[in-house]
Design goal:
The complex is a heterodimer of chains A (59) and B (447).
Chain A (H helix, E strand, L loop, with lengths): L2 H24 L4 H28 L1
Helix pairs in contact in A: 1-2
Chain B lengths: L4 E5 L3 H10 L4 E5 L2 H10 L4 E4 L11 H10 L3 E6 L4 H10 L3 E4 L3 H20 L13 H12 L7 E4 L6 H10 L7 E5 L5 H9 E2 L11 E2 L1 H4 L4 E5 L6 H13 L1 E2 L8 E2 L3 E6 L3 H6 L5 H7 L2 E4 L8 H10 L7 E2 L1 H9 L5 H14 L4 E2 L1 H7 L14 H8 L1 H19 L4 H8 L3 H19 L1
Parallel strand pairs in B: 1-2, 1-3, 3-4, 4-5, 6-13, 6-14, 7-10, 10-13, 15-16
Antiparallel strand pairs in B: 8-9, 11-12
The chains are: A mainly alpha (59), B alpha/beta (447).
């Protein structure tokens, strides 16, 4: 596996892990925090999508 | 929990938010890149650092450089990363990381890391443990206890080995006090109960569960919920009870006697025995699976005879709130030569006896009067052996002397037979023949 793919996979794992942790925390957040968390989760989901696309191109 | 100063090195915004939420209640400082992290490390005073390693797409694990800088400042470095190659893990530890966690379980991991850190720091600062709660000046014993204290804040079961009276219960209590567990320290001496009573004590019972159970009673397992269950003399527990206990340890649930409703308890096990567990297993007296469950970390306490310096340290401690004693040189010598077969417990009784006496200056005659002549380590034979030989014959008397020496050495070595074989330069045949006779004699006494 080349270095680029390895780094993309690392990035993907890292972002997915953060999304999972955020989802676990979500229920305990205040309404204001939930709003902020949702915005960050949406952005992270978008980055995950872009990373998967990059992985697809590299494959 | 005390407020900690924490640095988080993390480039991902969502991960930053997750970490700061988890660290609410502490002073958390976030750096999104290496340069900022290094600046903050230079300017600030942090207790812990949480480090991501790959900072942005294409980054070459620059977080590692921050670990080196933080470790050099004595900061407790924890890596939280998705990198899982052995090479990176090795490199992080080499650079000074204390812990390495996979990203994605922050909810449970971060709280656990902070709890352990606080407990460990408390343990490191608690040098006075050895001058108050667990008195010893013996470097080897101090080192062993300090090592055990590192495991106090974990859920790891601990096993304390050592002859009777060496301070196993005191050490277990100290370990509980440094565990960070908010439940009680619940101690039970397994040798003090019959099987039925032990079961009732451990698991509790419902009203009317057996004759005499006029009221329901909570068992020790439930009393130890979120705390520590200290099982002293676990080697004396029957195999049947061991099986029941094993099930309760594995499932953390159990049924009180007469109840059909299971109880749950989150207890941590610390066990102690004066016998060699491997030997108990070999003799079919301890279940191997139970042993596996109770010996996460093992500490062996030396008998008092092997830490002579502690005799006067302990004697001083026992009299600190009452009448102080002074020993003549001869009295001190005799106390140093004495074998203390009952260890610290015997010393405590001895000091209590002297303290209750009329004078505070203790001479050799007084020490001699209270300590058994035959236990002096200089090798003088016990006074009664001649009479024993006359009554039972020379061969029986020699056998008794040999048996007593073997037993004493075994006791002093915490029951480790290989040490006794080496110390006394005897054959395994003689050792096992002596042990067999001892077991038969013990069984005969019980009958």
């Amino acid at each position: 596996m080349n270095t680029d793919v390895s780094k993309l996979l690392h990035d993907l794992k890292s972002k997915c892990a953060s999304l999972k942790s955020a989802a676990e925390l979500y229920k305990d957040c205040s309404p204001a925090e939930r709003k902020e968390m949702l915005a960050l989760m949406t952005a992270a989901a978008g980055e995950i999508n872009r990373t998967v696309e990059a992985l697809n191109k590299a494959a | 929990m005390e407020k900690l100063n924490i640095l988080v090195l993390e480039d991902d915004k969502l991960a930053q938010k997750v970490m700061t939420t988890q660290l609410a209640g502490h002073e958390a400082d976030v750096a999104g890149d290496l340069k900022t992290a290094l600046k903050k490390l230079e300017a600030g005073r942090y207790d812990i650092g949480f480090f991501d390693l790959m900072l942005g797409p294409g980054d070459d694990y620059s977080g590692l450089k921050a670990i080196a800088a933080a470790a050099a400042r004595g900061i407790y470095c924890v890596v939280v990363s998705s990198s899982d190659s052995d090479e990176i893990i090795d490199r992080a530890y080499e650079l000074g990381a204390a812990d390495f966690y996979a990203k994605g379980n922050e909810e449970s991991n971060v709280a656990e890391i902070l709890r352990k850190y606080v407990q460990r720091r408390r343990a490191e600062r608690a040098g006075d443990i050895f001058e108050s709660a667990f008195i010893t000046g013996d470097p080897e014993t101090r080192a062993a206890a300090a090592e055990a204290l590192k495991y106090a804040p974990t859920a790891l079961p601990l096993l304390i080995l050592g002859p009777s009276g060496t301070g196993k219960t005191s050490l277990a209590r100290v370990l509980h006090e440094h565990s960070g567990r908010d439940g009680a320290f619940v101690s039970i001496n397994c040798s003090a109960y019959t099987d039925d009573l032990l079961e009732a004590e451990l698991f509790g019972y419902r009203k009317g569960a057996f004759t005499g159970a006029a009221d329901a009673r909570k068992g020790r397992l439930l009393e130890a919920h979120r705390g520590t269950l200290f099982l002293d003399e676990i080697g004396t527990m029957s195999l049947n009870m061991q099986m029941k206990l094993l099930k309760a340890i594995e499932e953390r649930t159990f049924y009180p006697l007469g109840s059909e409703r299971p109880e749950h308890s989150d207890f941590r096990i610390i066990s102690a025995t004066l016998e060699d567990p491997q030997d108990l297993i070999a003799r079919g007296r301890m279940r191997f699976d139970l042993f596996q469950r109770i010996h996460g970390y093992t500490i062996t306490l030396k008998p008092l005879a092997q830490r002579k310096g502690d005799v006067f340290l302990l004697a001083k401690h026992f009299t600190k709130d009452g009448k102080r004693l002074s020993f003549t040189t001869e009295a001190r010598r005799r106390m140093e030569e004495y074998a203390w077969p009952g260890n610290v417990r015997e010393l405590k009784k001895f000091v209590d006896l002297l303290s209750s006496g009329p004078g505070g200056r203790i001479g050799e005659a007084e020490v001699k009067r209270h300590l058994k002549e035959g236990e002096v380590m200089t090798g003088r034979a016990g006074g009664g052996i001649y009479e024993y030989a006359l009554a039972h014959g020379l061969e029986a008397a020699l056998e008794k002397v040999s048996g007593d020496i073997i037993e004493r050495n075994l006791r002093e070595n915490g029951g480790v037979r290989t040490k006794t074989l080496a110390d006394l330069k005897i054959s395994t045949r003689l050792l096992y023949a002596t042990l067999k006779k001892r077991d038969e004699a013990a069984a005969g006494e019980k009958e």
